[in-house]
């Protein structure tokens, strides 16, 4: 442990009026500093780890600040791996600020954002992917994102990446050992062996990359645009989707203008309904098809819900809207055609919609159609299943075992995959084994960026442990 670290403090709970608010201290002086403010039956410095005491906090002039419970946790088994004291105060903003100020005057420094977690990382308790998971747990807005983040916090991503890295390192170390000591390490048939390792590693990386895309949707929700001609029932579908859950309305500053987004849950999947303000305005029949407005929403969407009025024949407008999307910048975005108003006598069938999709160039995976009634709610379950199918190939339930990959992880994985492809090319080209190691190490290093590990120390340790026994 690094000894010269200072002691940091921060209000650890949300600011606002609440029953309890916590001021947290971490560092070598955490207990001593808290003791300067605290008076109870015992000194905090006499307490065992993971014990709590009731007492009063007072500033240096003896002015009582609050009644508190002080929780003492001693290094190294704490969140930060340092000594930690948590002061559970009354949860008023002023109380907490006074306690924080007193802690600073008593010798602590105000923590920077994320500094407690950074210390956990520097202390070696968690790796970078776990540090990131801490933030994901805190910001999780739905059960699936939360369970995936918790898994990552438990080390699911670290484990996967570490396994991959160990394999690559083993091969690198083997090559280097063989070049140094050809009598004991043979490189005969090495090409065949390493090809197996490369194939397996690349497959695992591809799988992780696929999950990276799903992770973004899990974390941020599926950005969904509802489009269709006036009176098709867009607002009604919106209301059906929002149901009781309608609540979080956020103004998000877009690049060109402000858009309104509303979040809702559909069978455990979070949908972010884009530009719902625009949808409401198109209720005004005077406004034409609203293509421009719809397109702006479509541009950033992961999913497009095209609402058609199934009680009327498919119109030119429906077809041209679909065509416009397909040929526009978002041609790859999956489309679900919702044949709305199926509580009435309908004249459009799912087959009709499918043939329109097909005619416009959508494959069965990219475009689906289903009947629904915004009025009765019938078909909502099918919509839910279709969304599962489109985005998670129907298999979202295994989120217990997953993790949430972010852009940084994704980039590292892509770099690693490219490096491994170069090794395969070298193997195919039949160049010397010493050429492999550069790219193997590049992949190893790229993967190490995910967990935040360093390269050289690891390599040295590994070679030492695996190959130099007794030497
Ligand atoms: P928008 O212009 O596309 O937003 O369409 P609205 O949601 O305002 O709906 C237009 C009209 O269709 C309204 O009178 C709705 O009550 C009606 N409507 C919408 N969905 C349904 C449905 O599923 N069944 C029936 N019978 N009427 C519907």
Q: How is this structure best summarized?
A:
With about 475 residues, the protein is an alpha/beta fold. The chain is about 45% helix and about 20% strand.
Structural class: alpha/beta
Give helix and strand order, one letter per element, not per position: EEHEEEEHEHHHHHEHEEEHHEHEHEHHHH
Mean pLDDT across every amino acid position: 83
DSSP summary: helix tally = 16
Which small compounds were modeled alongside the protein?
Answer: guanosine-5'-diphosphate
What percentage of amino acids are in beta strands?
15-25%
What key phrases describe this protein's structure?
471 residues, alpha/beta, seven-stranded mixed sheet, 16 helices, 47% helix, 19% strand, disordered C terminus, binds guanosine-5'-diphosphate
Description of the structure:
This protein is an alpha/beta fold and 471 residues long. Helices cover 47% and strands 19% of the residues. The protein has 16 helices and 14 strands. The strands form 2 sheets. A 7-stranded mixed β-sheet has the order 3-4-5-6-2-1-7. Strands 9-10-11-8-12-13-14 form a 7-stranded mixed β-sheet, sandwiched between helices. Strand 1 and strand 2 form a beta hairpin. Helix 4 packs antiparallel against helix 5, helix 6 runs antiparallel to helix 7 and helix 6 packs across helix 16. The radius of gyration is 29 Å and the shape is flat. The two termini are 31 Å apart. The structure holds guanosine-5'-diphosphate. Guanosine-5'-diphosphate binds next to helix 8.
